[in-house]
Amino acid sequence: MTKMVIKGTGRYLPERVVTNDDLTKIMDTTDEWIQQRTGIEERRWVPEEGNVGASDLGLEASKIALSRAGWEPKDLDLIIFGTLSPDLFFPGSGCLLQSKLGLKSTPALDIRQQCTGFLYGMEIADAYIKSGYASRILLVGAEVHSTGIEMATRGRDVTVIFGDGAGAVCLEGVETDENVGVLATSLHAQGDHAEALMVEIPASRISPTRVTHEHLDEGRQWPKMDGRNIFKLAVKRLPEVSQTVLDKAGLTIDDIDMVIPHQANLRINQFFQKSMNIPDEKIFNNIQKYGNTTAGTIPIALDEVIEQKLIPEEKSTLLFAGLGAGVTWGAMIFRFM
Question: 2-175: which CATH number, 3.40.50.300, 3.40.1170.60, 3.40.47.10, 3.90.79.10?
Fold first, then answer.
């Protein structure tokens, strides 16, 4: 039976470190205020001079993942790129990454699932591999938020949260009867909460220019978030969907070697941990130093977990879970070979 296994991981974070104290210079906030509400101490942003897009960060993470897998770009059958901050309005960043990897006709697709982009990408990759369409897939989650958030007190609640970064995984189909790979997945969406976290413009529904000077003056080009609603949804849905995949896989939380939740807010993850009775040594958080990199959070964390040898090298079982804009949410249990 064909199973999807992880052959290599990689991450890339920009060198520019932006601390909470740095943010106090451009908006009315404090380090204490940010840490109390989010758990974030600092985040990485691309250079102020710009000209760095999501595909550039994704390229650096991909090079590392490919090297660890022992692959060349030409070995890839498909590229899946998860991002809400593409380099261009169109085409997608997956095509740009494909070109930067020196490839000529390898298929590439973008997925716009925001904070659950990695989870959706893993499920899509698993389906492609099990169908026989692809054998080797590069999955990337990458974001450049810093060029799209409001650097003023009006945007404080959102701006303090987001960071830039990328994570990549090399996925391969192998023939085995072992119970490895994706053991269970549960993905969901609830579009009637779309306005809880959104960027309104530019938008095709706005005629004839997709954006007006009035819209810009009103700040509708910046992310808007109903933080309380997102928090309530997350602390309800994350335990639910995690229990669903545990039940599907016939496992309990005690069978999981490491839980890697999406890094949206440390308070959400602490509530999730308590609800699921997860021991401290079995849950990984890095939002304190990177902020929320949306589609990048889980693959970045996974790479750190492996690098720090926090899980057994073989047969380790991981639980991924996340909720984000859409709203979308999901969970997956993955076992290494």
Answer: 3.40.47.10
